[in-house]
């Protein structure tokens, strides 16, 4: 293509380095710099009247949506049904007319997501799409399009489009919360500030290369890897495991940390590294005790935490990647960049075709 790698080894490396810029560009579209308030485009429906959201997407976009679900439910108190598009379109969930269909897609062309969009529209839903290609088929068939402004993404595995989707979804949650009266001015200011802090914090992650490479060396030798997280860090674990599978061909599975004891704990031994997402926050102690259980069974803990969580995690983790502190609302965005960086480092060690992994396509326009 006409877009070069600018001296990076792969498009993926280049696109990982674009995270701070892309997050900033996306937020600039949605936050008024003068009032520091989220500004959603004019909607042909009232967010305050929406009874429920049905979120659907495929691949990484679906995990972005799952993180968005925690925000929409937590801040806007909006119930969110979330399912992958290939299931949703045949599940035929009962829909209340006037509900909101929330579609997320980098390309705007994914066949399953497009089919789900059409069936949700037939079910009387308003259609809001979060898209990176504004002239795509899904854009034409949506009532509202929120643009992710990530620029062209060449690497098959999504990186910068993912954090741009998260930036948009965070703003939608804040906008919806204001419309529904579930957010104080002080809380809105706090969340907007947390978002505006993101590009700077994201740029700091590139200083974590050595720590991430140490984890990558352990992961690259494994046949199976378990990713764990709680709350909005659970979908980050799903995204981390997906990225690892896609570009390094190592089997990885993600579990809600609290659910580990109901099955995957049986797998844990020295040969199955555990990648834990455990920044400080509301669920920190709960996560820590789940990780302690893994550790007690001989599991090798690779812990992604933050400055405030580092001392606690140092007692159980074999290796740590310590991210800068962030607001709990935006921490999942930083941690998703970190797990994408890990997958990239593992792929380098494995020598795979990072930008064009076998059997995968950038945009899947068949069912
Ligand atoms: C493909 C890609 C994934 C992507 C998914 C959804 O499977 O390999 O990286 O997440 O499609 O694509 P979309 O364009 O709808 O975001």
UniProtKB/TrEMBL annotation:
Task: Write out the catalytic residues in the record.
Answer: 362 (for fru-6p isomerization activity)
Catalytic activity entry: D-fructose 6-phosphate + L-glutamine = D-glucosamine 6-phosphate + L-glutamate
What top-tier enzyme class does this entry carry? transferase
- What EC number(s) are associated with this protein in UniProt? 2.6.1.16
Q: Where in the cell is it found?
A: Cytoplasm
Where in this chain does the record put each SIS domain?
43-182, 215-357
Instruction: Cite the GO molecular-function annotations of the record.
Output: glutamine-fructose-6-phosphate transaminase (isomerizing) activity
Query: Could you tell me the keywords of this UniProt record?
Result: Aminotransferase, Cytoplasm, Glutamine amidotransferase, Repeat, Transferase
Primary role: Catalyzes the first step in hexosamine metabolism, converting fructose-6P into glucosamine-6P using glutamine as a nitrogen source.
Outline the subunit composition: Homodimer.
Would you tell me the protein name for this molecule? Glutamine--fructose-6-phosphate aminotransferase [isomerizing]
Ranked from the top, the taxonomy reads: Bacteria, Pseudomonadati, Pseudomonadota, Alphaproteobacteria, Acetobacterales
* Full-protein positions shown: 241 to 607 of 607
């Amino acid at each position: 293509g006409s877009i070069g790698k600018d001296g990076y080894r792969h498009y993926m490396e280049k696109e990982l380095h674009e995270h701070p810029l892309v997050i900033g560009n996306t937020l600039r579209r949605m936050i008024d710099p003068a009032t520091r308030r989220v500004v959603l485009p004019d909607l042909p429906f009232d967010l305050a009247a929406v009874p429920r959201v049905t979120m659907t997407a495929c691949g990484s976009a679906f995990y972005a949506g799952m993180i968005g679900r925690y925000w929409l439910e937590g801040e806007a108190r909006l119930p969110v049904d979330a399912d992958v598009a290939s299931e949703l379109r045949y599940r035929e969930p009962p829909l209340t007319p006037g509900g909101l269909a929330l579609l997320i897609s980098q390309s705007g062309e994914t066949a399953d997501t497009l089919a789900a969009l059409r069936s949700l529209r037939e079910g009387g839903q308003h259609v809001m799409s979060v898209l990176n290609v504004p002239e795509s088929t899904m854009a034409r068939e949506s009532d509202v399009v929120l643009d992710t402004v990530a620029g062209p993404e060449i690497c098959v595995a999504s990186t910068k489009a993912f954090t741009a989707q998260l930036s948009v979804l965070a703003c939608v949650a804040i906008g919806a919360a204001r419309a529904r009266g579930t957010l104080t001015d002080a809380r809105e200011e706090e969340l907007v500030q947390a978002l505006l802090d993101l590009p700077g914090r994201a740029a700091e992650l590139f200083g974590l290369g050595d720590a991430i490479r140490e984890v990558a060396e352990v992961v690259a030798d494994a046949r199976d890897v378990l990713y764990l997280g709680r709350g909005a860090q659970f979908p980050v674990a799903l995204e981390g495991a997906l990225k690892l599978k896609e570009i390094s061909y190592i089997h990885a599975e993600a579990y809600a940390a609290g659910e580990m004891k109901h099955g995957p704990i049986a797998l844990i031994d020295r040969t199955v590294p555990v990648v834990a997402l455990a920044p400080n926050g509301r669920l920190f102690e709960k996560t820590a005790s789940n990780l302690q259980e893994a550790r007690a069974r001989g599991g090798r803990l690779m812990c992604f935490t933050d400055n405030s969580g580092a001392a606690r995690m140092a007692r159980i983790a074999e290796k740590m990647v310590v991210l800068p502190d962030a607001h709990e609302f935006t921490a999942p965005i930083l941690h998703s960049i970190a797990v994408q960086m890990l997958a990239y480092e593992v792929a380098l060690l494995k020598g795979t075709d990072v930008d064009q992994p076998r059997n995968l396509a950038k945009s899947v326009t068949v069912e």
